[in-house]
Design brief:
about 50% helix, elongated, 4 helices, mainly alpha, 2 strands, about 160 residues
């Protein structure tokens, strides 16, 4: 039982890491849209806004419960093992599709890497705006500022 439950638990934790990185990347990109506003959210409601995290919250206990039904001390049932394998296959395919989907927008992908985020932020302030900075640079420059910036021009090259 432990030889099966250990890898299941590890894979579910890894899929949770992927879901959390995708959630953070969506929030990072949503902060730069025109309709973005400063908002204070209730943190425990945040996972319900992202479909991949909601599915993960439901799948983790469900898959462990299905494994417990499939392999018990009283003996295992082929039907329950097939049900567990099918649910695990559906979960794995869903996680793979979600992880391979590319997010669109003008920002470089940081995927939670703190050093990359620090490199992308020019000016630190309580409220930051992302956009085109026209500070007299020879090359176009996108970055952050403490006041609203014009949108990044998607058909132009930036340094």
């Amino acid at each position: 039982m432990a030889a099966i439950q250990g890898p299941l638990t590890l894979s579910l934790h890894c899929s949770e890491l992927v879901a959390n990185v995708i959630r953070d990347e969506r929030i990072w990109r949503k902060a730069t849209t025109k309709g973005a506003r400063q908002c204070r959210r209730i943190l425990w409601l945040l996972p319900l806004e992202v479909l991949s995290i909601s599915l993960l919250l439901a799948a983790k206990p469900l898959l462990h419960w299905m494994l417990g039904l499939a392999i018990s001390l009283a003996g295992s049932s082929k039907g329950r093992i097939l049900n567990f394998a099918g649910a695990l296959l559906i979960f794995s395919l869903t996680c793979t599709i979600v992880a391979l989907r590319r997010l669109k927008g003008p920002q470089p992908a940081a995927y939670g890497h703190v050093q990359t985020l620090a490199n992308l932020i020019d000016e630190w302030s309580p409220t930051m705006w992302w956009g085109h900075k026209d500070d007299g640079f020879q090359h176009r420059h996108a970055g952050t500022c403490d006041y609203p910036l014009p949108d990044v021009e998607m058909d132009m090259l930036y340094a």
